[in-house]
Amino acid sequence: MSAEAQGNLAFRMGEFFSDGGKLGKAKGYESRPGQARMAERVAETIEDRKHLVVEAGTGTGKSLAYLVPAAYAAQELGKKAIISTYTIHLQEQLFGKDVPIVQSLV
């Protein structure tokens, strides 16, 4: 992998979510192409410092698709990522399930 590719967050998201990537190797993970595409778009948006609106159905894997690139970017920049949700239920899901998964893999 070239140095340019290593620094490209979107490229790394494609690898992370691939069958052979960190998440792909995690126990019980089911590959979701839409999730990988969303993570790549989120990463591109972070790198470009722009905004993104995504609509996707239940079961797409939206939470990990935005948490993983946000965590990588925060780690690399030495900053914190802030995630805001509309419902308490989603906050509980993120902190009880999804954030611990991301912390263990990033």
Automatic annotation (TrEMBL):
Gene3D superfamilies: P-loop containing nucleotide triphosphate hydrolases. Keywords: ATP-binding, Hydrolase, Nucleotide-binding. Residues 21-106 form the Helicase ATP-binding domain. The keyword Hydrolase applies. The keyword Cell wall biogenesis/degradation does not apply. InterPro entries: DEAD/DEAH_box_helicase_dom (IPR011545), Helic_SF1/SF2_ATP-bd_DinG/Rad3 (IPR014013), P-loop_NTPase (IPR027417). Coiled coil: none annotated. It holds the Pfam family DEAD. One of its GO terms (molecular function) is ATP binding. This is Helicase ATP-binding domain-containing protein. It comes from Verrucomicrobia subdivision 6 bacterium BACL9 MAG-120507-bin52.
